[in-house]
Amino acid sequence: MNLVFNTYITDEPLNSIHGNESEWQKIRNADTTFRRRSKLDIFKFTLDSYRYLDFNHTYFWVECEDPEKHNEINEYILNIWPSAFISNKRCLTYKDYQAMLVLVPDDDWVFYSPNNDQVFWAADRLTHLNSLLDELLVFSEQYDGMMGVFYSHLEEFRNLPLKETWFGQRWNNAREPRQLIHHNHNVVIFSSSIGENTSVQILHPKLFKAFFSSYNFKDKEIRRLEDLRPYFQIHNQVSVVPRFDFCTHFDGQPSLNPFILPPLFIPDGYFDSAMDILENNTIYKKGCLNLSTRFKLPPYLDPYCGADFIGSFDDLPLFIKEKYEGNF
Question: 3-state DSSP call for residue 111?
Answer without folding.
Answer: strand
